[in-house]
Amino acid sequence: MNNAKNQDERIARMTFGSVYPHYLAKVEKKGRSKEELHQVIEWLTGYDENTLQEIIEEKATLEKFFQKAALHPNARLITGVICGYRVEEIENALTQQVRYLDKLVDELAKGRKMEKICEPCSLTFTDHTPYITSGSAETNSCPYVYTLTEESEP
C-alpha cells in the first residue's frame, strides 16, 4: 500500500514537460505525428497546442496539468491495462488520469488509425471521441465509445 502511495506522489510531482518528449518519441517512432498526439491530448484534456506549450514552459507538474484540465466526460470509459495496471481499477484519481493519457498514447503508437481513436461525437470538446474496441455502444451515451483493451485489433 505504501508503495502505491509513493508511486502516486512521484507521479504528482513529475512535470508534464518531462513526460511529453517520451510520448512524442513513442508515437513518432511508430510513424505517428506530433499533430496526432496533440489531437489525443486535446480530446482528453481540452488543451490546445498553444496551451500545451505554455504548460511545458511553466514546468507544470502532472498534478497541476490535470487540475487545470477540462477532462473529457467520457474519459472514465477508457479501460484496459497500461504499465501493468487496469486503468479502471486505479484508486488515486490523478494516477488514473495519467494512465488514461498513457493508454490513449499507447493506442496511437500501436498504429490504431486516428479515425478509430477519435471518432466524431457530439459530447466532445474537439468533436472527437476515442473509438474503443469492445463493449456495447448501447450502454454508453456516445455511439462511438466502447472499451479499450490490449487485445484489440488496430
Radius of gyration: 15 Å
Helix content: 40-55%
Quaternary structure annotation: single chain
Low-confidence stretches: 120-154
Spatial order of strands in the largest sheet:
1-2
Class per helix and strand makeup: mainly alpha
User: End-to-end span in angstroms?
Assistant: 35 Å
What are the salient characteristics of this protein?
disordered C terminus, 5% strand, mainly alpha, two-stranded antiparallel ribbon
Question: Can you put this structure into words, describing what you see?
Answer:
31% of the residues are buried. This protein has 7 helices and 4 strands, in the order H-H-H-H-H-E-E-H-H-E-E. It is globular, with a radius of gyration of 15 Å. Residues 120-154 have low confidence and may be disordered. It has 154 residues and is mainly alpha-helical. The chain has helices spanning 2-13, 16-29, 34-45, 49-57, 62-68, 93-109, 114-117; strands at residues 81-82, 85-86, 118-119, 129-130. The strands form 2 sheets. It has a two-stranded antiparallel ribbon.
Q: What does the secondary structure layout of this molecule look like, with pairings?
A:
Blueprint: H1 2-13, H2 16-29, H3 34-45, H4 49-57, H5 62-68, E1 81-82, E2 85-86, H6 93-109, H7 114-117, E3 118-119, E4 129-130
Antiparallel strand pairs: 1-2, 3-4
